[in-house]
Amino acid sequence: MAYLQQTFARFLMPKKSTRSDAKPPAPVTIRDVARAAGVHVSTVSRALDPRRPGSVSAEVVAAIESAARRLGYRANRAASALRTGRTHTIGVLVPDITNPVFPPILKGIEAYAAARGSFVLIANVASSAMARPVVERMLAHQVDGVILAITSREDPLVDFMIASGVNAVMINRADESGRLPSVVSDDRLAMKLVVDHLLQGGRKRIAHLAGPQNVPTGVGRRLGYEQAMRDRGLASAGIVACDAYSRDAGRVAMAQLLATSKKPPDSVVCCNDLVALGAYDALARAGLRIPGDVAVAGHNDMLLVDLISPPLTTVRPPHGELGWRAAQLLFERLEDRQLSPITVVLRPELVVRGSTAPVA
Amino acid sequence: MAYLQQTFARFLMPKKSTRSDAKPPAPVTIRDVARAAGVHVSTVSRALDPRRPGSVSAEVVAAIESAARRLGYRANRAASALRTGRTHTIGVLVPDITNPVFPPILKGIEAYAAARGSFVLIANVASSAMARPVVERMLAHQVDGVILAITSREDPLVDFMIASGVNAVMINRADESGRLPSVVSDDRLAMKLVVDHLLQGGRKRIAHLAGPQNVPTGVGRRLGYEQAMRDRGLASAGIVACDAYSRDAGRVAMAQLLATSKKPPDSVVCCNDLVALGAYDALARAGLRIPGDVAVAGHNDMLLVDLISPPLTTVRPPHGELGWRAAQLLFERLEDRQLSPITVVLRPELVVRGSTAPVA
DNA sequence: TTGAAAGCGCTAACAT
DNA sequence: ATGTTAGCGCTTTCAA
User: Fold this and answer.
1) Looking at the predicted structure, is the pLDDT value of residue A261 above 60?
2) Does B28 touch chain A (CB under 8 A)?
3) pTM confidence score
């Protein structure tokens, strides 16, 4: 491409020589500021370091700051990174940023990081099996830490993170080996809230469309559902695990549930909203009405699930807080590498809508 | 906080001294590789530089690569950034990553950047008025370029970007001054597609809920609507501009449109999907049925608008391509700074659903 | 083809 | 409180 551009430049860009006159301004370095303020560069460095106030006399600081402002000085972070080993950059790995649970999490991370003067590098990594080279590149970039929002259980990636000595925090999945700090939403509580709500609405035959069982949330929510049913002395009206957290998988799983039960359930607790929407499809196809015949509940409170028909009852995890708490854990560890790997469990909230209206 | 942690460390973290034994492995530098391979560091640098193949003899390259692999060498990008001025990092400014149009754009940008070995720094910036300090920080980070997905017209930010000499590309809004390259979806075509579709469905009194008129897409779509109507020889059945691209603003605008028209329109072209959903609310409140009394069309094809009742007819801009095209423009300019600032216009696609079913 | 040497811009230990 | 000095890890002339 570079070759083509060169070759055709004279035809495509007649103003080339004119435009190249506008050369970018030469960058202002700490030397320029030192010279302008009549002090040594190290004095400038000290004066501009917010962590050490009072190490330079007030009038010198003033002179330096005025010179810096006048010249438009901007400290070169690449240089300070080389010297200090801190880039003020954290990496975040998500499976797919277009999955609507991640943007609010990312926003929470970014807000916290920005407040601490750091930037966020994002990388979409479809599966944690493909994460290794991306993490390698992040380490080459000297990121100060990494937040993993990718999901799989017993992940060799965790071993790699620990072996390489990176500061890392997991989100949306507790590290089952307990070696990395993590932030999660309480999946057991979530399922308990839903089951109890269905019971209060007069539902008795409660089934579960579970998530993929190689993903922590898939397992966690299934266990939560089973526990909640046991606590209330109820037998499950059926459990089918989905292949994926998708609408298609939900449709398939719901169809299977209907096919294998003699009597259909009167309610179904879904591992997430997309699966619940798939359940909507399968129920419609089977001629069953929501919530008349079957109540449906989801998880995540995705955008717009309040607008579909009927509006979906769901569980809302505190996504934004999940993000900033993870960032908080990471920054804590940046300051003190000895902190032990804790798990922070946040409370989700039940959002009741039409899809679980009480039986008539 | 650091103080508290120190103070309480002995109570909270009894294993502190034990854990600190696990010190991170000392980083492997180019020196270590050179020593292991029995060559000079500059030879290692050359051997590992993919841009200059053949500048080092094959057997030396092999020795170096094997040593590098054995030691687990990872080039320190902070160091090479200092030396070369290239960080392999681009910055992206979005108003709000939780707005569902941005994740696919970001994904497109990230995919292209990753393929070129670069990372993406994201920053949420509510308005372009607040962008200046963020851009300053990005420049301090020595980003190779910036993609602006923030929207406002005649923005002083553009002047700043040009003055500072950063490589920048705008997305979702053409720079009206034509000084920065940009990638946009064809808003005029979008409105034309919608208007023609409504006409084909037998609608005659077509109104428009316009976007904020200080935002390029708000203006562009309004002009597109007006042009399309003129082209077909039709008079507008009313235009109301929304304060924001939100459901609330859409509800308010639709209510106003109904209040000020003697006879309600038989269809309304909305500047985006959220506004269309607001129109749904207002129409329901006014006792008007969609699409029986009024057809409604949106723009963006947000997640789940196919699932609401009735499913929303909308326009789908190629968001992912918008993103990677912007990245492509940016990288082109990284290689050749003389390229003139072009605008790339991509074709959106009409997605017909129930909300614009033909009149009975 | 390889080695030697300089230096990117900054910070921090040490000296004054 | 300020200056001196060394050097972070890499790339890139220049010389051999």
Assistant:
1) yes
2) no
3) 0.92
